[in-house]
Amino acid sequence: MRLGLVIDLDTCVGCHACAVACKQWNTSGTTGPLTDIAAYGAEPSGVWFNRIRHYEVGDYPNNKTVNMPMSCMHCEDADCVTVCPTGASYKRKEDGIVLVDQDKCMGCNLCAWACPYGARELDPVDGVMKKCTLCIDRIYDETLEPEDRQPACVITCPAHARFFGDLDDPDSQVSRLTRERAGQTLMPELGYKPTNTYLPPRVTRPVPTDDVRRKSLISSVKEWVNQAIVR
Amino acid sequence: MKALPKFEDHSRQDTRYTTCYMCACRCGIKVTVEDNKVRYIQGNRNHPVNKGVLCAKGNAGIMKQQSPARLQQPLMRKPGTERGEGEFEPISWHDALNLLTDRLAKIRSTDPKKLAFFTGRDQMQALTGLWATQFGTINWAAHGGFCSVNMASAGLYTMGHAFWEFGDPDWERTKYFMLWGVAEDHASNPIKMGIEQIKRRGAKFVSVNPVRTGYQAVADEWVAIRPGTDGLLALAMIHVLLRNDCIDQAFLVRYTNAPWLVVDTPGQKGHGLILRDKKGKPLCWDQDTNAVTDASQVEIQPALFGEYTAPDGRPVKTVMTLLAERYLNAQYAPENVADRCGVPAEQIERLALEMAHVAFKETIEIECQWTDAYGRTHDRFVGRPVSMHAMRGISAHSNGFQTCRAIHLLQILMGTIDVPGGHLSKPPYPKHIPPGIKPAREMAPNTPLKSPPLGFPTGPEDLVIDKQGNPLRIDKAYSWDAPMANHGLMHMVITNAVKGDPYPIDTLILFMANMSWNSTMNTSQVMDMLREKGEDGEYKIPFLVVSDAFHSETVNFADLVLPDCTYLERHDTISMLDRPISEPHAAADSIRQPILEKDRDVRPWQEVLVDLAGRLKFPAFTGEDGKPRYTSYQDFIVNFQKEPGIGFLAGWRGENGDQDLRGDPNPQQWEAYAKNQCFFVHHLEDSQKYYRYCNQDYLTLARHAGWVGSTDPIVLELYSETQQRFKLAGQGLYDGPCPTREEHKDRLTRYFDPLPIWHPPLEHDRVDADAYPFHAITQRPMFMYHSWDSQNAWLRQICAGNRLYMNRGRAHSMGIEDDAWVWVESHHGRIRAQVKLIEAVEPDTVWTWNAIGKQAGAWGLSADADESRKGFLLNHLISELLPQKGDGLDNVTNSDPVTGQAAWYDLRVKITPAKPGEVGSWPQFDQVKPLPGMAVSPSALRYQTHRAVNLKRSLWDVLMRGKHRR
Amino acid sequence: MHPALSVIFFTVLSGAGYGLFMLVAVLHLTGSYPDASSGELQTQLAVALVLITIGLLSSSLHLHNPRNAWRAFMRVRTSWLSREAVLAVAFYPFALWYAWEVRATGGDVGQAGMIMGVIAVLLAGLTVFSTGMIYASLKTIRQWHTALTPANYLLLGLALGGLALVAIHGWFVGDDPLLGGIAIALLVLAAIMKGIYFLWIREVTGPTINTATGFTRAPVRILDPGHTAGTFLTREFGFDPGRQVIQRARLGVFALGFALPILLLAWVLSGAPAHWLTLALISALAGIGLERWLFFAEARHAVMLYHGRQHT
């Protein structure tokens, strides 16, 4: 099993709902609390597992704005795990989720250095590294309704731009979407084999206009007079 | 798989449903509570509005509840201190309400208009309006006048419903969606869900907006229009449709006033009015009989186009003739508007034809038997799947009413209103055009008004002016300055009251409105006005009551602070009498119920209102024994009936709770709502879902439910006779009140028109465009849109300081580099801000996030918070009055001349680089003092509802695992 | 990358210590240490061990949860940091045994002592190599992800060690052409290597903002990183002192780290008093400290592409 997220850049409007839902769930979750520093002061800064970045592609007027939510990619070849000296960081055999055992971390930051996606953030008060757990405390909680056994970010997304599932299962919705929409991973050249996949913006269908364009344009009201339409 | 630890002890948790209040979407939420603390707020999957999803604000509800800015207790300005100094002392609710009751009773028994009661982002206008009506003051309104009255009015005067709360695109079926001027707002979740739905289906999504962020980011095509020219763009597209004969003539004949005859006697009284028979019925030209005939008949063949002579000898033309004559004119040709709009002619033409293609070549037909309002049955609904949505970018200009009308006209000409795939109304809409309520004018001591303070005028005789033509309302709504100001002009209240123009008032009550900061124009001077005293040493506004849940900048100016509770601590109704949560095919309303116990000495504002109403002995709130009729807000909601069987809540009515929409009061109604996840939905039958302005089954239901007064068909008004009556008044050709002052005559003549017009935004005509070359606009970020919550500890991490966004190429051409500090100057003032250069804005526009800037010390924020050092408000640059020119308009509101809608986006500015060393936002204000009893804001937050249960990795695994996991 | 002072201290001091230890032990074991007195050997080894120990202690200062520092020995299978920790600790018993024998025998160590010395030298070299590999193994930082990184760490450690060796020797005996020659050679080699490194990192390779975002057919720019204040990521990775500072620092590295020590060495070798070598050592420590600061300051982490950098 290779659990992960598929994110649709065609519909993500960059609203930050997923990021805040994540914050909300996980501050009381298995690696909580997610400390916030200077919460009401200058330079407020806290621990987040999911951040939304906004980019511009192309130059005006041919520019497009792209919103890109980013959280742990749960890489196949996760260097953050490889470099961890204590064994706090690990990738679960069962489902590929990359986790940090909060009791084992010594806060050396090396895993964050090894991650090109910015998925790991140090909790300055606890002194340990925290990151997306793929809501492991939701997805296996059998007391929740089946549709609630998904990461908080997926459940909340108003643009339904987030999908959760097993990318090893070719019949899963996430695998299907990846195939059909030519999903791609970020910075593949680093060779980390990220699990999370991004669906690129769709290509718009062309709307024909020839069939409604008149050859001789109407220039006067007189051309319409005397048409019979029953009310 | 190894067993996982038990992460949560669900037996210690309780899950309850209520309705979100972080913005005006009113999403259903499911709240998990642990030890009276919120564990998790989740969207309610069954809820008609959000269907399980929830936005960033909704997800940040925990931090709203945790906010250190929550007011703790009622407060009085400390005797001997000046207003605005922020010196307060606690007062008990008992004393506060006695004091307020005495003051209000005195006003009510002498001159009720001396009370002005204005509310902000509340969702209880049915109650506050009723309260004002019963008090007997016409000086009441909510914040619509500075928000979206242009949209509501244009819609209601054109098609009986409107964008947003009164209507939605048919997300399920539309194939072409055009979004006009939607600044990441209005609405929040429903639009996001809708856009995703249409993109998944392959519909085309076109966005018209000077800025490409938010929803525009995912648009298939971006039309980078110049602010304030959308109306011209819409009219140019109408030009293209007409030239190519792409209009739905059958639709126009059947459902609109297109075939009605209009008297064509320029310069004479009665010109431009609809030709009517003796009973007042509009007439059309019957092509069978070649004579005028009652236009409301069916099975006739009315001429859509043509010039005729009325039986009384006057020349007449059909509405459609006037319309086509106007818009076929070359002034509306794409090539002639392209420069002004900043949109290439080719693109304008193509977009119009693309819509025409979808409307006419990709028509949808739904087989379904339905009966029209004339009793004829049809076997299908024909749909033209082009839809639109528009909001603030249209609304916040002084030409917004006409622009919104132009967009509706575009929709109607293609036959896309309330049809499958088009723009659908939401119950209780559509209403007859316009709704039949007139604004109240007469007041008397201790007497309720005869009608609500706000209504829908249909001509000058409905204005709220005295015999000399002077405004009667403190905000001058329904005066010659703003004749169709259907939501009032909240943004003028302080200025007018301080000037005593039209008269001084005694008490101003503000609820949930930040009128000394981001919700007012001209912020700096408005703050001074609130402090201003007359020669007698008395404040110009003698008594200011503020009710709010948080320590806003406005609370600082209050004489009496009545602390409200948060949305998780209160009962509320989102009522069918007000702005319900209906969806196109379902009438729905909802409630809030307390999720958490209050931990402060605060009261819900509506509870206070019901209490005050009883103390002041309002007739509707007083029993026959002279005692208060209602014991509480909940009691009021259950038992108050607007008309027999119709109350605030439409669900579970009747003694047994088994009646939908109409029925006797049900004492168990709150419980029934609570049991049903706090909302009620009445689904429409298939036959009631479309063409509702002319759908017998629907109109019958609507009359039963009290949504409309009759089952007569609602005729869509391409041609607005109301507009023409005001125009005639301006020309002195109206049989009724006419203005006497030249500037009023000029404005009525120029800006009122029965067919949509475009004129430059008023500020553009009164300032030198070369001196102020940029348009300056704002939008709210999605994660803060409409929220009362900028201080939210999570949301402010996303944005605590705003930038002035400029087009990169344009800035470089001016020598302005990224991150530079610049001066932004308007005709009215100047501010300093830091730029961010981007591609996603058309070159003549600069923009920023609104309401990020905060006064130091307000909202529980520290003195050095980014919001006060880096954040800034454009409000300082916007005058509440038109730019001064030394003419009669100097004292006229900076608003739409039709509706009084605040013209926020008319602003023009110049930009100059700041000198070296000039950094930080400017102006800066004194730090707001903390309130008594308020805790110091914590530095580090470590919120959690229980100790985390760590998932441990075994030592064996640590030691034995190699590089690869398998 | 944000240059952490504790890490700069650690790598410079322990690198110098390991370098000194290796040079002393190799010269001593091969019998080529000139004018070796017991006292001098003991002092050389003691200084090396003190430098190493201060460095190691300082390295623990950058841990945010030092209670778990002991766990750093657990993951030698994959983690270079873990390997470094294990090697660093493993070095001590051998090094101390060897040093104890030097002290006990007055420098004439037996076979066991020699074996201990050889092992200690190997472990010292491997430790410094591992330190280099911690950085070199990070694919996220192209300026580090190169064989030049461990080579630099080794050479700079040896060069500092060589300078320390000759300086201490200077206090005991005076200048010595062999030791001076070794020190100069190592400094020159290290300088060349550093020069190669600076040339090598000039060529921009690897991920760009385009590959980071997946939009490769048009320019990509950041509109908003999703937060207006700094985050852990921007504080840790967002350090950028600017071109000018970097140029000056590079100049400082070559001037203080290499040129001045070499000149002083040459001057002493040509007859100047040997205590000038101490100044050479201090200068080199400052220069290599600057080099280590630059090593971080010039490292451009890939995550900054997501924050708007065009390339690493």
Strand order of the largest sheet of chain B: 5-4-23-22-21-6-7
Give the low-confidence spans of chain A: none
Low-confidence sequence ranges of chain B? none
The chain-level structural class of chain A is alpha+beta
The percentage of residues in β strands of chain B lies in 15-25%
Roughly what fraction of the amino acids of chain A lie in strands? 15-25%
The chain-level structural class of chain B is: alpha/beta
Q: What best-fitting shape of chain B do the alpha-carbon axes yield?
A: globular
Domain 4Fe-4S Mo/W bis-MGD-type (chain B): 13-69
Cofactor (chain B): [4Fe-4S] cluster
GO molecular function, one term (chain B): molybdopterin cofactor binding
Organism (chain B): Ectothiorhodospira haloalkaliphila
Describe the protein.
Chain B: It is found in: Cell envelope. Chain B: Residues 13-69 form the 4Fe-4S Mo/W bis-MGD-type domain. Chain B: Its main location: other. Chain A is 16% helix and 20% strand. Chain A is of the alpha+beta class and 231 residues long. The N and C termini of chain A lie far apart (64 Å). With 312 residues, chain C is mainly alpha-helical. Chain C has ten helices and one strand; from the N terminus they run H-H-H-H-H-H-H-E-H-H-H. The radius of gyration of chain C is 21 Å and the shape is globular. In chain C, 54% of the residues are buried. Chains in contact: A-B, A-C, B-C. At the A-B interface, helix 1, strand 2, strand 3, strand 5 and helix 5 of A face strand 3, helix 1, helix 6, helix 8 and helix 9 of B.
